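User: Sequence in, structure out. Go.
Assistant: Echoing your sequence, followed by the structure tokens.
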Amino acid sequence: MTHRALRLRLDAAALQDNWRWLQRASGTATGAAVKADGYGLGARDVTRLLGDAGCRDFFVSNWAEADALGAMPDGVSLSVLHGVGAKDMAAALGSSARPVLNTPGQIARWREAAPERPCDVMVDTGMNRLGVRTDELHSLEGLRIETLISHLACADEDSAMNRVQRDRFAAVAATVEARRYSLANSAGICLGADYAFDLVRPGLALYGGIPREEASGHIRQVVYPEAEVVQRRTVRAGETVGYGATWTAQDDTEVAVINIGYADGYLRCFAGRGGASVGAARLPLVGRVSMDLVALDCSDCPELREGEWVSMDYDLPAAAEASGLSQYELLTGLGQRFERDWNGAGRLWLERAQVDHRTAPAFRFPRLADVAAMQDQPVMGVGQERLGSDLLQFQLDRQRVLALGQSGAVGDPEDMGIDGDRRLTERDVEDDVGGLAPDAG
């Protein structure tokens, strides 16, 4: 596999813990927004990890995102927030995902094509973005509405608009029949139980963002961008660094040039404000951010060498304050040149492969499920599912096996006769967890 000099170290346990805190805070069913490829982290991995934690309701923006996720396991729902346009009908009718109908035109289209199938509906309570207006509610007659949804415009602020929207939504919920009602996003959860209704739909806070002060101290950082040192050099006093010669060394300065830039979502607004760290040593950014490179003052890290890694300063609230970008932009702007490296229970490696989810059987969420681990071989079949040339590899070290053991899926590897320092083999899986293969259909 080609080496990548950029990686996102992604904390699976933090992602799951964030979902659990949001569930406790809301006191009701808690879904997850996994649109924009799971806020840039990889929607398929995010969905499986949150599914393993207990999440059963997921939300994407459009049908391309739904198709990329594929079929959901039994008991798990996927909703498409942008509804169903005329060109979406083939995808919608061939999918188990539900459209969130937003306009009278979408409602008429769905009623004609799929009158017996359930749908979700968005009602506009004041944001004036998507949703049926309150004077258009008559158009909903006869629909099988699974979830009636609205969206808060100002939940991250102490705004009177929050209560106005909440009360409008409650009034609509009293007149429109649906199985469930949903209003709150991450920030809305922090507003309290009055905003929870039957289902909440967090996004930002799942991924380490702090939507309101109430979440501080509870939400953990998930995303840690890391970059490799391309060159270490000494910049002499009086010399400058980077485009525009905007930074001048006051003394001889050790500089590390690292493999990250604005093409990767690390934007020019970090110039003079951003930085990285190696252990306890902080490395401030010097000069401008280039397309592919950034320079750091590494004088306090004499041991740092070419080919070693630094961790970018990317605590979302702090990075947002430093850059002027929103926490949402910081997440979703992270580019595709990063290797996305999940750790912990539920880690899924699907490399050099694109599974055709339209024909593949549904999966159960993995605890140790999907573990048909082979040392360095492509998995040609899992249960009765043929993945063809797809390479499904699980790198299971002792820590992850023990973590999975806590779920009852598998015990201590040594109790299984497995050396804790080597990977599970196909024989280990057949002998000990063969009954956990994915569903065949």
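User: And one key feature?
Assistant: The longest helix spans residues 12-26.
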